[in-house]
Amino acid sequence: MSVTGVEGEERNDYTKEESRAIRQRSLRLLGSLLRPVRARVFLTMAVVVISTAAQVAGPLFIAYGINNGLPALLAQDWFPLAGAVGAYLFTGVIGAVLIAWYTVLSARISQTILFDLRKRVFLHTQRLSLDFHESYTSGRIIARQTSDLDAIRELLDSGINNLVSGLLYMTFTAIALIALDWVSGLVLFGSLVPLLLLTRWFQKRSQARFRQTRTASARLIVHFVESMTGIRAVKAFRKEKRNEKEFGGLVEDYRDANARVIQLFGIYDPGLVLIGNIALAIVLVVGGIRVADGTLLIGTLLATLLYTRQFYAPAEEMAMFYNSYQSAAAALEKISGVLEEKPSVADPTRPIDLRKAQGRVTFSGVEFAYKSDRVILPTFDLDIPAGQTIALVGSTGAGKSTLAKLISRFYDPTLGTVSLDGVDLRRLHPKDLRRAIVMVTQEAYLFSGTVADNIALGKPDATREEIVAAARAVGAHEFIEGLPNGYDTDVNKRGGRVSAGQRQLLSFARAFIADPVVLILDEATASLDIPSERLVQEGLQTLLADRTAVIIAHRLSTVAIADRVLVMEHGRIVEDGTPAELIGGTGRFAQLHAAWRDSLV
Ligand SMILES: Nc1ncnc2c1ncn2[C@@H]1O[C@H](COP(=O)(O)OP(=O)(O)OP(=O)(O)O)[C@@H](O)[C@H]1O
C-alpha cells in the first residue's frame, strides 16, 4: 500500500520502509523550513551557550566568596569578597540579559517558521484539485491548520528551547561540580541512575497516553466541524440529541485521556523531587563529614549543594520534550503528506496563448472515471458550437454535473480531450481558462463581505457602475436597493440575509460581470415562487445572450429557452436535438416532458 501524500494517514501499521519514507519526508520539510533561518539559529545557539555558562558560574563565586572572601574580610581586606559578589552579580546580569535576548530570538525564529508553514499549507491545499477536497474532509484540513500547527508551535516555542538549554545546563552544572569537588560529582552521577530509570518509565508510559489525547482532540475537532457545517441537516433531522451524546462521549474521552497523562505527572514530578532531595542529603552528609575532617571547605560544600539542587531543575522539562517532539513529529508527518499531494489537474508548463476565445467546446474521444475501477462517462464525442445554449437533462446520477465539471476543468478526462476553440483545456493558462469558462454552481456561495464585493468576485477590478450594471442586467438591482445598505449591505449581517432566489440572481450578476465566452450553470433545484422564478428566468436570458452555455436544467422553462437539449442516461448522451424535436418524438425526453407538464397542472 502506498504512503505517498495523505494516503495511509489514518494507518498505524507502517512497515519499516514506509516509516522511513514518512520520516524522510518530514525531515525534508523541516529542513526546508529551517534553511531560511539557519543563521539566526546559530546565533541563538551561541547566545544560549554563553547565557547558560553565565548562570552556572554563580555558585563558583559564592564558594570563592565564602572560602577566600570571608577570611580576608576578617583580616580587614574586603577586596576578595567584593570581587566575588561583583562577579556573581555580573554573571547574573549577563545571564539575564542573554536569556531575554535569546527568548526574543527564538520566538522570532519560531514565528517565522510557523508563518511560512501556515502559508504553505493554505496555499497548497487551495491549489489542490477538487478530487482531493472531495475525499479529504474539511475537518481534517482544519485539524492540519490548527492542532497540528499548534503541536509544531509548542515544540518550537518551548520544546527545543527546553531541550537545548536544559542539556547545556545539566552538562555545565555537572562539569562545574566535578571541577569543584569530584566526590560530590560521584554522588550526583550515582543519582543519575534512578533519574534515568524514572524518566524512561515516564516517557514510555506517556508516549501512548499523549497519543491518546491527540487522537481524542482530533476526533473532537472533526465531529465539531461536521456538526457545524451540516447544522441545517442536524436541525432538520433533529440530530441534536444524538450529536450531544456523541460529542459528550468524545469530550469524555478527551478528558479521560488528559487525566491519564496527569496521573503520570503525579508520579514523575514527586519522584524527581525525591531523587533530588536524597542526592542532596547524601552530598550534605558526605560533604559535612569532610568539612569536619578539614578536607573540604565550607564554601565549596555550599556550592556543591547549590549545584546538586539546580541539576534537577530542567529534568522535567526535558522529559516533556520527548512528548512535544512526538506530537510535533506526528503533526509534521501529516502536514508533509498534505504538502506532498500534487494537484491532479496540473497547470500547463508551456501554455498556449488563447487570444480571443470564440466559445466552441469539443469533446473528442472522452472517457471519464473518478476512480479507475468505475467509468462514469463511457467514451463519447460532442461538439458544442460557439454561442449555443445547451440544456442538459437526465435522471439523478446520470452524469450531468460530471460532464459540466469536465468543461470547467475541475477534472481532466481519463481519455481523450476537451477543447475550447480547438485548444486542449490542459494547454490553457489557468487565467485564460477561468476568464473564458465560468461555472455557476447550485449553491451560489456568498463570501463574507458586501453584496457589491460578492458581485465583483467575477471581476475584481470592477467599478461600482459596472457592478450596478451587471445587477440590473440580471434583474437583481431592485432587491439589492431594498436591502438595508443597498450594495454595501454585509451579506452575513442580520438584514443582509438574502433568499435562495436572490442568491441565485447575485451569482448570475457575478457571472455576468465576469463575461465568460462559455458559461456552465447548475440550475438550483430549489423551487422558487412564481414571481421569483420569472425574475430568475429573465436574468438567465440576459446572462445567456451571446455566449456558449451549458445548463444542467431542472426546470421546464429553462429547457424551453435552450437551442439544443442533451438527455443523459447512465453517463451516455441518449438524445440530442432541439427542444421541439425531442418533445415531438417518443424518446426519454418526451416522457420526461410529459411528466413535467403534468406536475405543473
Ligand atoms: N467525486 C466523486 N467521486 C466518485 N464518484 C462520483 C463523484 N461525484 C459523482 N460521482 C458519481 O458519478 C455519477 C454521476 O454523478 P453526477 O453528479 O455527474 O450526476 P448528475 O447527473 O449531475 O446527478 P444530479 O442531477 O443528482 O446532480 C454518480 O454515480 C456519482 O455517484
Report on the structure:
The protein is of the alpha/beta class and 601 residues long. The protein has two domains: 16-340, Up-down Bundle (ABC transporter transmembrane region fold), CATH 1.20.1560.10; 361-600, P-loop containing nucleotide triphosphate hydrolases (Rossmann fold), CATH 3.40.50.300. The protein is 65% helix and 10% strand. The protein has 20 helices and ten strands. It has helices spanning 16-34, 38-74, 79-127, 130-135, 138-180, 182-229, 231-236, 240-293, 298-311, 315-340, 400-407, 430-436, 451-456, 464-473, 477-481, 500-514, 530-544, 556-560, 579-584, 588-600; strands spanning 361-371, 374-384, 389-394, 415-420, 423-424, 437-440, 518-522, 548-552, 564-569, 572-577. A six-stranded mixed β-sheet has the order 6-7-8-3-9-10, sandwiched between helices. Strand 4 and strand 5 (423-424) form a beta hairpin. The longest helix is centred in the middle third of the chain and has 54 residues, at 240-293. It is elongated and about 120 Å long. The two termini are 57 Å apart. The mean pLDDT is 86. The structure holds adenosine-5'-triphosphate. Adenosine-5'-triphosphate binds at residues 134, 370-371, 376, 394, 396-402.
